[in-house]
Each structure stands twice: as C-alpha cells, then as structure tokens.
Amino acid sequence: MRTVKPFLCVSKHWAPLRWLSKPRNCSNVARASSGEKKKAVSDNFRRQVASGPRLQDFIKSPPVTLAVNYQHTDEHYLSEDLGLLGDARKVYFETYGCQMNVNDTEIAWSILQKKGYQRTADLKQADVVLLVTCSIREKAEQTIWNRLQQLTAMKKKRLKTNSPMKIGILGCMAERLKTELLEREKLVDVLAGPDAYRDLPRLLAAAAGGQQASNVLLSLEETYADIMPVQHASQGRSAFVSIMRGCDNMCSYCIVPFTRGRERSRPVSSILEEVQMLSDQGVKEVTLLGQNVNSYRDTSEVQFCGSERTKLSRGFSTVYRAKQGGLRFSDLLDLVSRIDPDMRIRFTSPHPKDFPDEVLQLIAERQNVCKQIHLPAQSGSNQVLKAMRRGYTREAYLDLVDNIKQIIPDVSLSSDFISGFCGETDDDHQQTLSLIREVGFNVGFLFAYSMRKKTHAFHRLQDDVAPQVKRRRLEECISVFREEAERVNAAVVGSTQLVLVEGESKRSAEDLCGRTDGNMKVIFPKEDVAVQASASNTAPIRGGGYVLVKILSAGSQSLRGRALSHTSLRSTVTPSCDGYK
C-alpha cells in the first residue's frame, strides 16, 4: 500500500522576484519616469500572482490511498545490450608504443570478447581494425598516420564487397588528435581515449550503423580494476599488470598528463587477485605497470587514508603538494612478492623521485623482486633539468644512484635520455654524456626531442635546437651509451646467471634466449641439461623454465653463454649468481 502525497510545497513567506535590472539613464527625468514604470510593473505582477491559481487548484481531491500490485521481474521489453553485441564480428588489433598500450589492448579485448566479438590475427579477415596508439613523440604519430592511409585504401576496396571494414583509433592519439582524425582527415570510424574502452561496444555499434563515433573523455577514477585483461603473452610466460594510470608530474616536455589524465591508483585487492590468477595459470614473470608506477597510492578504503605524507627520494621535489595517506608502492610490492616465490616481479616506468629507502630495501630483500631499476634521467645538465621541470638536480640524481648501489649492490640500471631539448647547449650535451659514463647503465632508451602541443614547453619554451644538431647529439649519446653498456656487461663474463627462458632465438633455431634478473638478453645453445645442479639425468629446456647459464661473452645489447642445469627461482641463492656490479 502506498500513500500519494502532495509533490509541491510552497512557503507562506516569500520575497518578490527581482527580474528587472537597474536601468542606465542619463537624466533625473528619465530616472523618475523609469522608477514609476518599474513600480507599476511590480504592482501589476503582484496582482497577477494574488489573483492566479493556488496549489489547491491543482489538487482537486484529498490524498488517495492506492493499492499497488507490483511483481518484480528481470524481463525487459528490450535487452539493454540490444545492438551492442558483436555478432561474431572479427577484430584485429595493432599495438604501438609502451607496455601500457599492450595492457590497454588486453583490456579492450576483454570488453569486446564479452560482447561476442572474435579476435583474428589475419588483417584480411577483420571486420574491425583497432590501432592502439602512442603520442609521446612525433615519429610515433607519423607511423600511425601512414598506417591509416594503408588501411583506408583497404577499406575502400572492401566497400565493394558485402563485408565492409571499420577502423578505430584507441589510446593517446585518439585523445590528442580527435578533431584531425574525425573531421579533417575522415580516416576513422571510431575514436576511444584511454579512459573510454568500456564504451567500445556502443561506439562500434554506432559505426556499424554508418556513423562516426567518439569518446575521448578523461576520468579521475577509471582504473579498469574490475576488468580482467585477456593476456596474450608468449605462451603465458610473462604478463603485464596495470596498477595505476595517469601522471601528475607535469614535466614540461611530456604529453602524458594531457592524454592519460591525472594519477589514480587501482585498489590493491584487485591487483592481488589478478596476480594470483596469473600465478595459477603458470605465469613466471609479472611486470607492474604505470606512467609513474612507483607513485602508487591506494586510497580506496578508509583504513588506508592516514595523515602520513608521501616520502620522496632525498633531494627531489614535485610541482604538486605532498600527498597524504594511502597504501604506498612499497606496501603493494611487499604483498605482490609474497603471492608466488617462483614468480619474478618487475615494474615500469618509475620516476626517480619515488625511491625512498623502504622501496630499495624491499627490492634488496626479496628474492623474486628483480634487482633491476629503470631510472629515467633525461639529461645530465642542471639547466636542462630545470627547464624540463624534473624536480631534481644532477647531484641529487647521482646521490640517488649511489644510494641504490649501496643498498642493492648487484643492481642493474637503465635510463631514458632526450637529446636537443629546448635551450640545450653543447655544454649541456657534454654534461649528459659525462653522466652516462659516470653511472654505467646497461640498457637505455634515447630519443631526439619532439615538441608536443598542450605541454608546458609548447606554451613557454622555444624548440630552438636545429634538427641536424638533435640527430648528431643523439648519435653521440647512443655511441657513448653502447660503450658503457658493453663495459658493464663485460663484468659478468664468467659468472653464472639465473635465466628465465623465453623461447627460441629469432636469429637461429639452434639457440634459445631468455633474460637475467637484470633484464639482459642471454643467447645459449638449445640442448638438454641436467635436471638440477650436480644431477646426472638431463631434460630439454623449454620456454617458461629457469636455467643456470654460464656467461661466456658479452656485447652492448646481449650476452652469450651455455646452460648448465635446470633450476627454480626459490631454490637459487642470489649470491651464487654474480650480478651486475
């Protein structure tokens, strides 16, 4: 039984509506005349309100008691998913850029798979082609533009058949170049930004009806925590797990905060659930992902929200206020590393500012947390670092390197560098070269500067280094980097390394390849080896297994050796495998 009550309540005390603004007059006569008119209109308005209908005129009878016979049912006249189902249409993915885009591909596919789409590795069979894109540099975007021209030519040919093809752009480029992609070039049917993958079924349904469809809105909350990515790692040996999205650092050269939005962290419970699932599937290596992965801060539950401020590396600062509370990266790394002692844990991409001692000590203590740290420097010049808004000096960076090597003696370091940033002089460039020599990285990612719209540098700085100068400086950085990497790698010749086998070498079917704890590629012959150290019986080496490999030679990008025996991560004592010094 339900009582219908009046739905409108009017107060007895009310003030007249001020609906006339004060007139602007140029004489006293005009002002007096205007005042008289205003009073007349106001009096007339009051009389109309007083003589008009009252609330009771709209309610002709007292409240009525109604008998409602309501039976709940889950049936609907129309399915809420009507038109959003894939109807077995085949989707082809192409992924460009960073590991986050690999993970985004798996999330997008998980969403579409549940709606009845099928995945194909054959472009010719595809009904939908989705490009997961990168905007970090101009070259990455140009690659996508060239690919779109090729796909558009294919699409036009398909229009003559009964199986038309739809093209979609996902990820950072969708957000950054939405106008050019949809309106000017008219090359695509669907655009979905990094935070809009849940909307893909609706966007594709609209495209199937002949419309262009777009959703590039950024979110302050979206982490896809409830969506389990469909992993497509090679035979399930390794997997990426996204733990946070976006970035708050606002480095002056970087487009990421504008294409992926503000930082937000995925609840720790959903991360642990996914890692446990991967362990149950036999995955041997998990890489935790985030644009600023080590700034992870889970505030999803009340008990996590304390008052303790986020700790930074000594000598580092941020452009934003210090954050408070939440489960930090060290807490997450601790919990993840306990799930499976025989599963390697890596993480990327970190920022140097977020390496307080507790993170470093945890890496040193845990056998299955890889002793490899990516430490993006970007430049060795204080002047350039300040212009980049990196929040540290050359001296603070080198102090952090010394601290890392002291806490983790066998650590392997990698880095990023940008050549030819705004205002960079030859002296700045030489300081970068000297930093590369001083630290001794074994892996590097080096690029010439490419100015991006929306960034601080685009609005405030001048891209004043000539392209040919950028190229020359980049080549010099690469040359020095390779020299130092070869020197660092040569230090492990003669040591025994624990290697996770990835599979057959791309260059020879007679060789296998895998990676060390320090993330260096190792090539070794495909042959049967002892099932364990000092055992007489042998077994073939298969992908996904751990083997001990004696390192015989080293180059700047890989090591060569010979496998000694099968082993496991938990049974191998780290000191017996001489690491990078």
From TrEMBL:
Q: Which reaction does it catalyse?
A: N(6)-dimethylallyladenosine(37) in tRNA + (sulfur carrier)-SH + AH2 + 2 S-adenosyl-L-methionine = 2-methylsulfanyl-N(6)-dimethylallyladenosine(37) in tRNA + (sulfur carrier)-H + 5'-deoxyadenosine + L-methionine + A + S-adenosyl-L-homocysteine + 2 H(+)
Q: Which residues cross the membrane?
A: none
* Pfam families xrefs: Radical_SAM, TRAM, UPF0004
Q: Which cofactor does it need?
A: [4Fe-4S] cluster
Question: Could you provide one GO biological process annotation from this protein's UniProt record?
Answer: regulation of protein metabolic process
Q: Which HAMAP family does the annotation name?
A: tRNA_metthiotr_MiaB (MF_01864)
What is the protein's given name? Mitochondrial tRNA methylthiotransferase CDK5RAP1
Q: Which organism is it from?
A: Poecilia reticulata
Q: What is the lineage of its organism?
A: Eukaryota, Metazoa, Chordata, Craniata, Vertebrata
